[in-house]
Amino acid sequence: MTTASDVIASGPAPILLGRTPDRRGSWLPTGGMITTRFMELRKRRGLMMALIVVTIGIPTLFLTVRLLAHAFAPKSYGPAGGEDIFNALVAGVLYVFGFIVAATLGCTAGSVDLTEGMFRHLVVTGRSRLALYLARIPAGLAIVVPLVAIGFTIVCAVCVFAAPTQINYQGVNLPAGLSEAGLQHWAADHANEVVCNFPYQGSGSNNIDNVISNAPCNGPGGGPGIVRNGPPTDSTTPTPAMIRAAAVQIAARDYSGYSNIFLSPSVGLMVRTGLWIELEVIVGFIVGLGLGSLLGQRTVAVILMIVLEIVLTPILSRANIPHMINLQRSVVGLAVAHLEPAGLGFVFGGGGGPDGGRGTSLLVPESRAAAGLVIAAWLVGWTALGAWRMVKRDA
Fold this sequence. Notes:
Layout: H1 31-42, H2 45-72, H3 83-115, H4 119-123, H5 129-134, H6 136-161, E1 167-169, E2 172-174, H7 180-189, H8 191-197, E3 200-201, H9 207-214, E4 226-227, H10 240-259, H11 267-295, H12 299-318, H13 325-329, H14 332-338, H15 368-392
């Protein structure tokens, strides 16, 4: 009788796998968190419509009306484009309203979870509150930055392709891009227009003053741009040759002013201006985000941001208040205005550099380095305040 040994069958040994690290506590936001925040903001249709209307609709409507008006009545309405229109829309519309819409979006992103009762549900997921806050920054900027860029691109396109074909200098239409010799030659052929309209600082003893004073112009002794330092010493009617000679001299003196006038904005100016506008938008969004998170509501935060941009910043940027000059220099709007590209229309009465290329700046003086430090301090400071409030807020 054969006995078989009992064999104890054993199953395969279990493989011990290392635990997957839980990354929910990381302060770095993930791509999914950013996407979720982006979708939450984008689904707010009323807010998105307001952003589109302000950043794209207003410039488009203004330029469309100008295009139609010039097409139907070109003698009554000037071209829709040009450098002047570009300066007006950038300094008067995109700069101010871009900041306001960015701040509104930021205040909404910073307070929406609390006002809608979703903050508690976000906390129980175990995600880092700091990551939840930081995810709002790229999500909001991904909305407002492209919208402002689209509106700015429309302005640039119309201002370039619908620019005037002649420069209007002191009420006189003349060709663009002339050299100094070319402007003098043009002035000799249009002597009466130049003598009667181009600005000239008279000396009181020069023969050119007598020519200007006695030239056959509409008005007492010259056009609106003439400035003389005394009465004429001779009342003899000038000959055509004398008027031509005076026109050539006036054109030579006015060439610097003429050369600073362009039919359309240059590519370099448009690029610098676009980056500057986007900087203003980024500042508005991040400050609004921090303020909305700090206060826990949107309405008051939006009102405070509008007051800052429309009321406080223009006053503090221009008024030289004794013993408060350093406090004025700490205003972010003044700092951004000091970074304005040279050659652009003044914002709050001033521009980039000492005069922005357009005359004496009325801004409170501040160096570009100091302006950059002020902007960085506002961005870091308000991000820290908003994140601190979210971390410390009761769920």
